[in-house]
Amino acid sequence: MKLRDLRLNLDQLLLDPNNYRLDYDSDGKTYSGYEIIDQQEITQRRLDKEKLGELRDSIVENGFLEMDRIVVRVLDEKAQNKQYVVVEGNRRTAAFKGLLEDYSDGIINLPKSLIEKANSIGVICVEGSDKEIEEFSSSLMGIRHVSGPKKWTGYQSARLINDRFKAGVSLTKIGLLLGITSKDAGRRLRGYHAYIQMKNDKVFGSKTKTKHYTLLLEFLTPSGMARDWLGWDDAEFLFKNKKHINRVYSAVTSVDGLRPEVNNTAEARYFIKLLNYDKQRREMLERGDQITAIPPPNENTSSKEVPFKNFIYLLSNLDADDLNPDEISYLEEIQIKLRELLEEGKVS
Questions:
Q1: Could you tell me the CA-to-CA distances from 154 to 20, 161, 188, 321 in Å, in that order?
Q2: Do residues 269 and 215 lie in contact, with contact meaning Cβ atoms separated by under 8 Å?
Q3: What is the β-pairing status of strands 70-74 and 84-88?
């Protein structure tokens, strides 16, 4: 493998639709060869969502600086007019392409120097076998985005770890490659598979978001009983207890646009704390009681104060115009029961 300095026209640079940064709403397909060319317009639109405004402003103000070189690989060595897939620097390339497109459409004005720069961009081209290029790209992305200054989300780094693990690289070597411990690499690998399991679930798959990777990671912590409670199989990288994992899925996903029961890592840890605390609270979780309706640790589980407070909170946030017939019927039943209790003197 070798690295070669090249000067290329901006039009020769192809955005990478397989970019790890974009793996949050993709269909899971990997594009290769000339499929990459067909995906350019879609990839540009998806990268435009990556907060490119400041980057575009910086390019206009300071020019397209080459201190942080774009890294590319050739799409087809045999092609007469070669095109190059961006390995590292997709956001900067997309920002520059977007500026030039707006300029061509007459939307903005650009300095002449910047327009000329688009005809001669200094890049580093990675050359070698497919395996060599893949290993170099993984190492580069790991240094920059896993342990380096421009970190990806946890899920994106976990996907990179999974790709290298599938290629036969040991967790020890992956850890050295990415600048993390082998233990951390293994933890992220398990989290990736837990996320993929949820994403493939027939009921909850459509509700799965990349943030669920971080939440599921909490349930894989070796300490406590969550991992055993969910029946995690370390050989198959799967949760085997369907009933319990569905309970977690229901807790971390939204119903009818409402806030999920567990929406952040602190709430996930509290869920696990209740799970670990005693049998009674664990059974309440298993039957579907909301964590806000379960007495906190050190509080008597027979206390009615918590569910009463939650019911009052629910009533205070209801809008009569949004109630459906079934909900109105439930409220009428509650009204009748409350009246009976008051008349019987059980409530003063």
A1: 11, 11, 8, 41
A2: no
A3: antiparallel
Contact 6, 82 (CB under 8 A): no
Find the CATH number of the domain harbouring 72. Answer: 3.90.1530.10
Q: Model confidence over 215-266: pLDDT tens digits?
A: 999 999 887 689 999 999 999 999 999 999 999 999 999 888 889 999 999 9
Among 128, 156, 187, the domain boundary falls at 128
Q: Is the per-residue pLDDT at 346 higher than 70? A: no
| Token reading at 321 | 């115009």
DSSP one-letter string for 55-74: HHHHHHHH----SS-EEEEE
Q: Which has more confidence, 23 or 267? A: 267
Over residues 269-279, the pLDDT tens digits come to 999 999 998 88
Measure the CA–CA gap between 34 and 13, rounded to whole angstroms: 13
Q: How far apart are CA 105 and CA 158, in angstroms?
A: 40
pLDDT for residue 304: 60
Residue 203 lies in a domain: no
Task: Please spell the DSSP secondary structure of 152-195, one letter per residue.
Answer: --HHHHHHHHHHHHHTT--HHHHHHHHTS-HHHHHHHHHHHHHH
Q: Is residue 239 part of a domain?
A: no
Is residue 277 within 8 A of residue 299, CB to CB? The reply is: no
Number of domains in the chain: 2
pLDDT of residue 142: 61
Q: What are the CA-CA distances from residue 217 to residues 99, 193, 314 (Å)?
A: 39, 10, 30
- 149 found inside a domain: no
For the record, the structure tokens of 203 come out as 């009921």
Say if strands 232-233 and 84-88 run parallel, antiparallel, or are unpaired: unpaired
> Are 174 and 182 spatial neighbours (Cβ–Cβ below 8 Å)?
yes
User: What is the extent of the structural domain holding 327?
Assistant: 318-348
| 189-215 pLDDT per residue, tens | 999 999 999 999 999 999 999 889 999
- Inside any domain, residue 25: yes
Q: Is the pLDDT of residue 150 over 60?
A: no
Whether 50 contacts 21, CB under 8 Å: yes
pLDDT at 223: 75
